[in-house]
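Step 1: inspect the first sequence and its tokens.
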Amino acid sequence: MTKSLYGLKQASRQWFDKLSTFLISDNYVQSKFDHSLFIKKTSTDFTALLVYVDDIVLTRNSMSEITHIKTLLHHQFQIKDLGELKYFLEFEVARSKKGIHLCQRKYALDILEETGMLGSKPCSTPFLSNTNFLYKTENYLDNPSAYRRLIRKLFYLTNTRSDLCFTVNLLSQFMQEPTKHHYQALQHILRYVKFSPSEGLFFAADSDIQIKGFSDSDWVTCPNTRRSTSGYCTFLGSFLVSWKSKKQSTISRSSTEAKFHALAATVNEI
């Protein structure tokens, strides 16, 4: 009897094992940083293949290898070619001669509709100037699950929205016992998302490949822990490729020490 693989607990693992073995046999190298990424390089060509469950994204500087690997995959697994990448895991991809624009517009609008903020008045900044009210221990939410669910959704939105990174990171530190003040701050973020739902990343076609990094930090702005928050961003040429906002693990004795912690994190990322 032939038993279907679908429905078994080992299904996804067995499928990925079979796919990765097949790709490695065709001289693809599995990334050690991201095991779902496979790369094939020659002296003149470069191919990248990204896998998510049974969806595959292919990119290359030459169409010959893409045609080759698609033919092999079709014969081995009977795949369906969906054409140029336009939508993948809530990411929208728009191409032009100038470059590629990556955003999560539909995902952002879905969040606004789900929270009833689609008709709200937009605002032009993602962060409130005064954050002292975030540390008040009063007016706790009766049901914090909605707050936590919204934080998780906004974290996924920061994959293309670096402008939300600091604020979402700050509000995520209150997920254990959120108050009405924290939820109002979340609503402020949603009003900012309403202001520019199509905001995202642009990868220029004619940019150089010089790596640049920028870092900064505040100093003991958290009254509870007295720890500082680091922030950095790195660019490949003119486009942004990575960014992070995170509370430092130790207490800095001066603003200079806090900035050195942020700089060390930036250098490590580069």
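Step 2: inspect the second sequence and its tokens, then contrast the two.
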Amino acid sequence: MEKAFELAEVKNDKKAQYGSYYLKDEASYWWDSTKALLKGEAISWEKFTELFLEKYLRSYMQDRLEMRFLDLKQENMTLAEYEVKFSELARFVPEYVNTEVKKVKIFQQGLKPWIRSQVALLEIRTYAALVQKAMIVEGEREITKRESEGKKRKFEESEQDQGSSKFRGKFGKNVGS
């Protein structure tokens, strides 16, 4: 819905009106009665979404989503996967991410420890910058890992070659010749 608002350049004071237009059946009836109870009060998009979620995302589900968000750790996910999951759950707990500082702090806490230690030194203040720097750290680690695996493989191959030449050197000719 937010993307549609952005595309149509809907002003903040009109978002609730536009959003409620798309409600159907029971949700539409619910909104009509809720509006009547609010008696002409100006309803912001934030208030509309709060009321909608309160009605259709029961407190039990809200609590479960909040816990999933607070317990979210990168663990075996790539940074891109973690960021997607973080953003997906953050929609349901806006009070935890309503400032850049809060969003950065919570996202950073969930990072793999080796990434977190690298980006913590940078004291990053914006979410976008944190995600970008964390992706760089993760990418550099992958490059370093591949390079060291390549060197290890070359070393092992050279050890095998040296081992077989030592064997031939001790006994003269290859065994079985």
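Step 3: confirm your contrast with the notes below.
The two ends are 78 Å apart (CA to CA). The CA atoms of residues 5 and 11 lie 8 Å apart.
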